[in-house]
């Protein structure tokens, strides 16, 4: 989950989006995870788990991620 959180390089705002919702700047993962082919589709595996309600998260977090990624 932590690798999903990105940070705007311009204003420093944390977001789940690829583009900063505040200033439109580019975002990136503050602490990039070690590269692994298995993680390439992590986002989609997480989304699938969320959609199937198999990922234990708070409801508001789940809704925010689904909203941001869809
Ligand atoms: Zn920004």
Question: Layout of SSEs?
Answer:
Elements: E1 6-8, E2 14-15, E3 27-28, H1 42-51, H2 59-69
Antiparallel strand pairs: 1-2, 1-3
Bound molecules: zinc ion (ZN).
What would you note in describing this structure?
The chain has helices at 42-51, 59-69, and strands spanning 6-8, 14-15, 27-28. 30% of the residues lie in helices and 10% in strands. A three-stranded antiparallel sheet has the order 2-1-3, with no helix packed on it. The chain is α+β, with helices and mostly antiparallel strands and 70 residues long. The model has no long low-confidence stretch (mean pLDDT 80). Bound molecules: zinc ion.
Descriptive tags:
70 residues, alpha+beta, 3-stranded antiparallel sheet, 3 strands, binds zinc ion
Put simply, the count of helices is 2
As a percent range, the share of strand residues is 5-15%
Radius of gyration: 13 Å
Class based on secondary structure composition and strand pairing = alpha+beta
In percent, how helical is the residue content? 25-40%
Mean pLDDT across all residues, rounded?
80
Termini separation comes to: 17 Å
Domain count: 1
Molecular shape: globular
Major beta sheet summary = 3 strands, antiparallel
Which stretches are poorly predicted, pLDDT < 50 over at least 5 residues? none
Strand numbers in spatial order across the main sheet: 2-1-3
Series of secondary-structure elements, N-terminal to C-terminal: EEEHH
The count of β-strands is: 3
Each distinct ligand: zinc ion
